[in-house]
């Protein structure tokens, strides 16, 4: 899913937001649901972060980089900021992954056995379904991340920024931009997507989605965990 057409076609002034999913963690590799648990990049994840940083450094005019304050995203953002000669990444909890409540720290298999109610709620199609143990509903996640990005767009109108975040949150940003077009497949670690946000944050246009061409040498792991409907 390296590129996508416009889902709507404004020609007004816009903010260009370059979205990057964090690099791989050992928990991704072990297929563990992370949520708000603060796991760090593994060696592959750091190689992926260097690769995406090199890719983005060939572009111009980024004015700032924002990131989730969770370590796996913040470390990815730090590598990008250094390579792109940007100020230190601005960390914000609004860009965190969905809080998964009682499921955090479990594999999907263990979640099904140990937390069957939470597991059922996690797989529910009901977007207002909160998760036991303080977990967010998809509606809560959507409102958190889209309102934050709308505020960034208003702050940076006419500018280009980078945002480093997580798979579940990226899926909600896609939903905001293209509510009538379901997102199939995974968002790979360090995948790059580009959104133009127009008209005071209200009109979103996808210009590119899920590009991992920068990982040709490092390798984009097609079987990596997360970045799909069970992201976390």
SSE blueprint:
Layout: E1 14-21, H1 26-29, H2 43-57, E2 62-67, H3 71-83, E3 90-91, H4 108-114, H5 116-122, H6 138-155, E4 160-165, H7 167-177, E5 192-198, E6 203-211
Helix pairs in contact: 2-3, 4-5, 6-7
Question: Could you explain how this protein is built, in words?
Answer:
By secondary structure, this protein is of the alpha/beta class. The protein contains seven helices and six strands; from the N terminus they run βααβαβαααβαββ. It has a six-stranded mixed beta sheet. α4 crosses α5. The two termini are 20 Å apart.
In short:
It contains seven helices and six strands.
Structural class: alpha/beta
Strand content: 15-25%
Low-confidence stretches: 1-6
Please outline the major beta sheet. 6 strands, mixed
The share of residues in helices is 25-40%
In total, the number of strands is: 6
How far is the N terminus from the C terminus? 20 Å
Q: Give the number of helices.
A: 7
Task: Please compute the radius of gyration using only Cα atoms.
Answer: 17 Å
Mean pLDDT metric: 90
Question: How do the strands of the widest beta sheet line up side by side?
Answer: 3-2-4-1-5-6
**H-E order:** EHHEHEHHHEHEE
User: What spatial form do the alpha-carbon principal axes imply?
Assistant: globular
Features:
disordered N terminus, 232 residues, 32% helix, 6 strands, alpha/beta
């Amino acid at each position: 899913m390296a590129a996508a057409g416009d889902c709507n076609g404004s020609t007004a002034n816009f903010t260009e937001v370059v979205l990057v999913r964090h690099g791989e963690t050992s928990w991704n590799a072990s297929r563990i649901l992370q949520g708000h648990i603060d796991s760090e990049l593994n060696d592959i994840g750091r190689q992926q972060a260097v690769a995406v940083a090199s890719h983005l450094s060939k572009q111009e005019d980024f004015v700032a980089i924002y990131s989730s304050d969770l370590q796996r995203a913040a470390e990815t953002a730090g590598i990008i900021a250094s390579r792109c000669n940007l100020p230190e990444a601005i960390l914000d909890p609004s860009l965190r992954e969905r809080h998964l409540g009682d499921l955090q720290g479990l594999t999907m298999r263990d979640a099904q056995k140990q937390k069957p109610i939470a597991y059922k709620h996690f797989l529910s199609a009901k977007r207002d379904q909160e998760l036991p143990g303080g977990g967010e509903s998809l509606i809560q996640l959507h409102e958190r991340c889209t309102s934050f990005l709308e505020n960034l767009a208003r702050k940076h109108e006419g500018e280009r920024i980078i945002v480093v975040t997580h798979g579940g949150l990226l899926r909600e940003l896609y939903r905001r931009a293209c509510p009538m077009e379901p997102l199939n497949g995974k968002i790979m670690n360090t995948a790059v997507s580009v959104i133009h946000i127009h008209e005071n944050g209200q009109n979103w246009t996808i210009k590119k989605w899920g590009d991992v061409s920068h990982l040709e040498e490092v390798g984009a792991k097609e079987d990596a965990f997360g970045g799909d409907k069970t992201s976390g």
